[in-house]
Every structure is written in C-alpha cells, then in structure tokens.
From TrEMBL:
<dbReference type="InterPro" id="IPR018211">
    <property type="entry name" value="ADH_Fe_CS"/>
</dbReference>
<dbReference type="Pfam" id="PF00465">
    <property type="entry name" value="Fe-ADH"/>
</dbReference>
<keyword id="KW-0560">Oxidoreductase</keyword>
<dbReference type="Pfam" id="PF25137">
    <property type="entry name" value="ADH_Fe_C"/>
</dbReference>
<dbReference type="GO" id="GO:1990002">
    <property type="term" value="F:methylglyoxal reductase (NADPH) (acetol producing) activity"/>
</dbReference>
<dbReference type="GO" id="GO:0046872">
    <property type="term" value="F:metal ion binding"/>
</dbReference>
<dbReference type="InterPro" id="IPR056798">
    <property type="entry name" value="ADH_Fe_C"/>
</dbReference>
<protein>
    <submittedName>
        <fullName>Alcohol dehydrogenase, iron-dependent</fullName>
        <ecNumber>1.1.1.1</ecNumber>
    </submittedName>
</protein>
<feature type="domain" description="Alcohol dehydrogenase iron-type/glycerol dehydrogenase GldA">
    <location>
        <begin position="9"/>
        <end position="178"/>
    </location>
</feature>
<dbReference type="InterPro" id="IPR001670">
    <property type="entry name" value="ADH_Fe/GldA"/>
</dbReference>
<dbReference type="GO" id="GO:0008106">
    <property type="term" value="F:alcohol dehydrogenase (NADP+) activity"/>
</dbReference>
<feature type="domain" description="Fe-containing alcohol dehydrogenase-like C-terminal">
    <location>
        <begin position="189"/>
        <end position="394"/>
    </location>
</feature>
<dbReference type="GO" id="GO:0005829">
    <property type="term" value="C:cytosol"/>
</dbReference>
<dbReference type="GO" id="GO:1990362">
    <property type="term" value="F:butanol dehydrogenase (NAD+) activity"/>
</dbReference>
<dbReference type="InterPro" id="IPR044731">
    <property type="entry name" value="BDH-like"/>
</dbReference>
C-alpha cells in the first residue's frame, strides 16, 4: 500500500456485565435524553433492555424506547426514529442490538442532524455534515458497525439498499459483552462469522497492482484462521465465553481498518449480496457465503498469486509452484467447504430454496449497477454483464 488512512475514534468497553455501564458512558459523552433503539423481543425477553434502562436511570438520564428494527434495516424505521427524537428532544442515540440496529441508529443520527430527507444522503444526492452522537450495546458479532463508519439502509420504495460511510458515522462508545451472544441461533452465529470473514476478504483482494503491507496480510490471515477456529467451538458450545469473545473482537477488528483500508478493497461480494438480501430478505452473512465462491472463480485469474497465498496461509494448502492456479482453486474450494461445515449456503439455490429466474438475475444486476450507471469491484472491475454472469454462476 502506498498510503492509507485509519480513523478509529470509538471507545470500547469489553467484558462481562458491561451493559450495566451504558448510562455512565452515555452521560460521559454528553447525553441528557437518550433514544434506546433495539430490534425484536429478545432484548426484552432476556432482560437486557431492563438492565440498560436501569443504568440510564442510575445515571440520571431520561430515555425513550423505539424497537422493531428488522434485519436489513428499513428507511421507514429511520424516519420514525428521527420524528420521535425531534418530538422528545433526544440528544443521544443508544443502539442495543447487532449491525441492523446500529445501522438504523446511524440513519436516525444522520436524519436528526441534517436537513431534508435522510434518504437523499444515502442516495448520494446530498452530503452529510453531522450526526447525532451514538453509542452501542452489541448483541451480535457480525457487521462490525460498532466501530466502523458504515451504515446500510433499505428503502422499501423499490427495495433499494444503499450504504453510507462518513467520518460522522462512528459510535462514541461500544459496549461488548460476549455473554450477550450466547443465545443466538446457530444459523445466526454462523452467518455472523461469515460476515466477519468476508469483511476481511474484501480488504484482502485489492486491485492487482496494489501493494499490501505484509503485516496487514498477516493480521488478516490470522483473523480468518481465528474466526474459523472459534466458530466451530461456538457452534458446539454456545456458552463458551472465550470462543464468543474471540469472535466478537474479530468482528470489530475486521471492519475498523485493522485488516486494511476499506477504500483499497474490492467489495463486490457485499454489493452483489445487498441486492439478494433486499429482494429475498436473507441473512447478510448467508448471502455472502452464497456468492463468494462464484465471485472468486470469476475473478481469480486477475491475480492468481493472491488467491494462492490465501490458500497456503489460511488453509495450509501446499503451494504448487508449477501450477499456482491449482493452489488458488483449491483454496476457493476450501473456503466453500468451511462455509458448508458451519451450515452456510454456497449457492443461491441453497440460500433461497430455488434457482434464480433470468428476470430475477437481470433485476439483481440492474439494481446492483445502480440502473447501469456504475461498475463494482477493484480486484476486477465488474460491469452489469459481469454481475449477471456471477449471479448465474451462483444460482
């Protein structure tokens, strides 16, 4: 890498029972009245929401509640949150949940601090200039939103899924108690681990001419091996604190630029998957697993050595110097084998229970290309036609 930037301003509070400190940290960062934003019934049923609210009371803070965030968070919820915050004079937003809840909270923060329709900022029609202060109590290790500047929101009008990354979109603090992930269903745990891995893989596969620092490669490869190891343990022993802690911290590091500056990364798989989850409502990590292998086989010849390095350093596959391509393909197959081992799909048919139709393939590619106005990817630049071909290969 010739140059890179890292900006990681989020304070991390990691460990058992740390959710009981939520009020203390909201107050530290200037809160007077807090919007507690969360998803479904699990936060209430587990008692987590009560503990967080008790901590706010103990800190002398007022709060209002807004639940109902769904996977692939929706614009309508963001707008509802903005309206509620304005009515209640909220000055701090606390997300209690996983990536979807944190992304929704960021959308509310943007809408609260900037004029006009918040969607205009996600659609890149206007430029963000501020965000209301945010905090997070993380319950799912996956998206890395707790320490990244990213937010992805779905506009139900047309089912358009758009991401927004700005320096204003960082949480002030993130509370991370691995115990809060014990009760996650196995599929959700596996999906989260896949998301963590692909965040790192997107950064690993840079444009072919990019020089990646050996140290960053080593960190990325170690993180991938770490997640693979502890995902297997967590699926067998859901209440294994050490395994959950390793996965949770890996999820944060995978998306806070430790494994590479995201601006150099490829991100094609994320863009391709966004349209799948928008159209079919699938879990994000599972969608990534469904397209990654087909993307990899479509692009690997752009830099065979890079895929062969992944195979050797992550999966311990001997490097075939006479035929590096064979090593690269063996590594791709090994990655898919791991996804299958933890219960993830490696085709769209496995993901949604049917083959894509040609009309669906064309619609997915059309939306992914922003109505044929952009390409995606840096490892290999993909046109709308390439996107169609990858969806076909993955179907």
């Amino acid at each position: 890498m010739d140059h890179f930037q890292i900006h990681a301003p989020t304070q991390i509070i990691f460990g058992k029972n740390t959710e009981n400190e939520a009020g203390k940290w909201c107050k530290y960062y200037g809160a007077h009245k807090v919007l507690v934003h969360f998803g479904g019934h699990s936060a209430k049923k587990s008692g987590l929401l009560d503990r967080v609210c008790a901590s706010l009371k103990d800190a002398g803070l007022e709060y209002v509640l807004l639940g109902g965030v769904v996977p692939n968070p929706q614009l309508s919820m963001v707008k509802k949150g903005v309206e509620l915050c304005r009515e209640e004079n909220v000055d701090f937003i606390l997300a209690v949940g996983g990536g979807s809840v944190i992304d929704s909270a960021k959308g509310i923060g943007y809408g609260l601090a900037n004029p006009g329709d918040v969607w205009d900022y996600y659609a890149k029609k206007k430029e963000i200039t501020a965000c209301a202060p945010l905090g997070a109590v993380l319950t799912i290790a996956a998206a890395g939103s707790e320490m990244s500047n990213c937010s992805v929101i779905t506009n139900e009008d047309g089912m358009l899924k758009r991401g927004l990354s700005t320096d204003y979109g960082y949480c002030k603090f993130a509370i991370m108690n691995p115990e809060l992930t014990y009760t996650l269903p196995a599929y959700q745990t596996a999906s989260g681990c896949t998301d963590i891995m692909v965040h790192t893989l997107e950064r690993y596969f840079t444009a072919p001419a990019t020089h990646q620092l050996a140290l960053i490669d080593g960190i990325a490869e170690t993180l991938l091996r770490n997640v693979m190891r502890y995902a297997k343990i967590a699926l067998k022993e859901p209440d294994n604190y050490d395994a959950r802690a390793e996965i949770m911290w890996s999820g944060t590091l995978s998306h806070n630029e430790t494994t590479g500056d995201r601006t150099f990364g490829d991100w094609s798989c994320h863009q391709l998957e966004h349209e799948l989850s928008s159209m079919f409502g699938v879990a994000h990590g599972a969608g990534l697993a469904a397209v990654w292998g087909s993307w990899a086989r479509y692009v690997y010849k752009e830099n065979v050595g890079r895929f062969a390095q992944l195979a050797t350093n992550v999966f311990h596959i001997p490097y075939n110097f006479r035929n590096p391509e064979a090593t690269a393909l063996e590594g791709i197959a090994a990655m898919e084998s791991f996804f299958h081992h933890i219960g993830m799909p490696t085709s769209i048919h496995e993901l949604i229970g049917k083959d894509l139709t040609e009309d669906e393939i064309k619609e997915l590619a059309y939306k992914c290309s922003f109505m044929n106005t952009r390409t995606i990817g840096q490892f290999k630049v993909l046109t709308i036609g390439d996107m169609e071909n990858i969806y076909r290969a993955a179907k």
